[in-house]
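TASK: fixed-backbone design
INPUT:
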């Protein structure tokens, strides 16, 4: 294409971009396996109806029409004659600030790359006959799918990469039936210069991310402010009926070391939600700026399982800013085999000072049961909010509202400070039973900590503590490397309408409630238990 002209490619039989394919154009690109372009003047240009009259127009198409069984689009382009700032091959690339749009049939990218630095990439398609709207404003192309469209599938595999990360701007939009990113396949946005990043939006009936590629990069969705950049990260929106992340995959929205700007939010709206085998959601700051929030809103269950599996918001070593909040709204929540929800201000690393800022809050609001159970590979299934050794800032609050609540087999709720700042509060409010079986709820001013411990508040229809379960606020003694904690322990308040049951202490863990100190400077908190028997 000459000058800044856009290129529209139409081939209903299918499109294949081989390993060495590249685009040499000055504008935006749209490739589609539709049968025809639709124009706003009533004309239609067909690639299959040879009897249609010739058409000469300078209008821009505003839609695409598909017949049954649309052809697929395959992208294998990973040609390395051009690379991005991180040394990644760009594959099919349009000039900065332009759009790259693929509209199938199914779209398959096996190791292929799509790049529109600071521009827009949109992927989508139909599984059958129908039309897709097209909005063109300058260099920006946007697709419009009707709510009753039968969508096709999109697969990114084996280090396939879609990237719009540049000097600010850059959006990715995906509309699909099944979205699958495996073995390093990923969507990438963010800013590496001066300017705010754009958003990543995925609308899919099923959303699946899994595995790490040969490059060592995990599969998933990433929106980041890079080292040396100045600007805010964009948001990540995932709307799906089923969300599944496994085998180290992730959804990440971070401010990296050396960057200045706030992180974006991660918003997931789904039917069911599952993370397993080291998969994570992360909204954190390691630079100068606040981390974003994480929201998981599920009409059905939220389940996390496996060590190093979790949802976290971190003020990392070297980070200066507040952590984001984690909010879970669902029918039920299960954390098992070492899975965690975590907000933390981290201690110093080998190369960076301890973080400075407040940890975010964790809020769980479910209509049914919250189950937290088990330990695996040294990881307790848990909800944690913590200020690390030498860090400065307050811990976040942990607030759980549910039908019933169960904490078993070494699982924990813990709000603690080992740095300069107050620990957060822990609140469990259940309309039915609260059960702890070899599970603990802690609020701690740890060794090296200077600040107040948080309060623990439990409300329910009944409360059962068994097999060494503890509810404890404490100020800890000195460790080998840190002085004794300094501050007041928090209070423990239990208010239930039925029975409080305490049974079966372990040899090293007596069951019960405690507000204690271990030779630190302290004021011990109060323990208030109100088991209110029903009226006769």
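OUTPUT:
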């Amino acid at each position: 294409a000459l000058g800044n002209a856009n290129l529209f490619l139409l081939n209903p039989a299918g499109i294949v971009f081989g390993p060495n394919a590249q685009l040499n154009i000055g504008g935006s690109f749209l490739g589609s396996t539709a049968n025809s372009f639709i124009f706003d003047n009533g004309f239609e240009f067909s690639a299959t109806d040879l009897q249609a009259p010739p058409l000469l127009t300078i209008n821009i198409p505003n839609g695409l029409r598909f017949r049954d069984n649309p052809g697929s689009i395959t992208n294998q382009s990973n040609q390395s004659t051009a690379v991005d700032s991180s040394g990644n091959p760009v594959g099919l690339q349009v000039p900065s600030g332009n759009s790259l749009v693929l509209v199938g049939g199914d779209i398959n990218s096996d190791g292929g790359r799509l790049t529109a630095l600071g521009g827009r990439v949109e992927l989508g398609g139909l599984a059958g006959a129908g039309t897709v709207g097209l909005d063109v404003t300058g260099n920006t192309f946007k697709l419009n799918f009707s709510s009753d469209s039968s969508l096709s599938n999109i697969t990114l595999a084996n280090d396939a990469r879609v990237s719009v990360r540049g000097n600010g701007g850059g959006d990715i939009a995906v509309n699909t039936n099944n979205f699958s990113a495996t073995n390093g396949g990923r969507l990438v946005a963010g800013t590496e210069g001066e300017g705010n990043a754009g958003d990543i939006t995925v609308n899919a009936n099923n959303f699946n991310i899994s595995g790490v590629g040969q490059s060592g990069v995990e599969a998933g969705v990433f929106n980041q402010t890079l080292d040396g950049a100045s600007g805010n990260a964009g948001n990540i929106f995932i709307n799906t009926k089923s969300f599944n992340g496994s085998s180290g995959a992730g959804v990440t929205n971070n401010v990296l070391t050396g960057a200045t700007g706030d992180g974006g939010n991660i918003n997931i709206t789904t039917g069911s939600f599952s993370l397993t085998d080291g998969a994570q959601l992360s909204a954190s700051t390691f630079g100068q700026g606040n981390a974003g929030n994480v929201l998981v809103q599920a009409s059905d269950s939220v389940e996390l399982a496996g060590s190093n599996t979790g949802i976290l918001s971190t003020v990392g070593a070297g980070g200066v800013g507040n952590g984001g909040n984690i909010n879970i709204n669902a029918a039920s929540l299960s954390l098992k085999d070492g899975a965690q929800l975590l907000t933390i201000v981290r201690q110093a690393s080998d190369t960076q000072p301890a973080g400075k800022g407040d940890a975010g809050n964790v809020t769980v609001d479910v209509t049914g049961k919250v189950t937290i159970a088990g330990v695996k590979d040294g990881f307790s299934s848990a909800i944690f909010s913590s200020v690390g050794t030498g860090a400065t800032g307050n811990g976040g609050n942990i607030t759980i509202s549910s039908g019933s609540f169960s904490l078993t087999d070494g699982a924990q709720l813990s709000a603690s400070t080992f740095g300069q700042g107050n620990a957060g509060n822990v609140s469990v409010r259940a309309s039915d039973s609260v059960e702890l079986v070899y599970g603990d709820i802690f609020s701690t001013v740890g060794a090296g900590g200077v600040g107040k411990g948080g309060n623990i508040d439990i409300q329910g229809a009944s409360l059962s503590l068994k097999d060494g379960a503890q509810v404890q606020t404490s100020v800890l003694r000195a460790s080998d490397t840190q002085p004794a904690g300094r501050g007041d322990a928090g209070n423990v308040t239990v208010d239930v309408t039925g029975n409080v049951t305490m049974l079966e202490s372990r040899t090293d863990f007596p069951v019960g409630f405690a507000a204690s100190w271990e030779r630190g400077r302290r004021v011990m908190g109060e323990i208030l238990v109100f088991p209110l028997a029903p009226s006769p």
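COMMENT: DSSP finds no helices and 49 strands in the chain.
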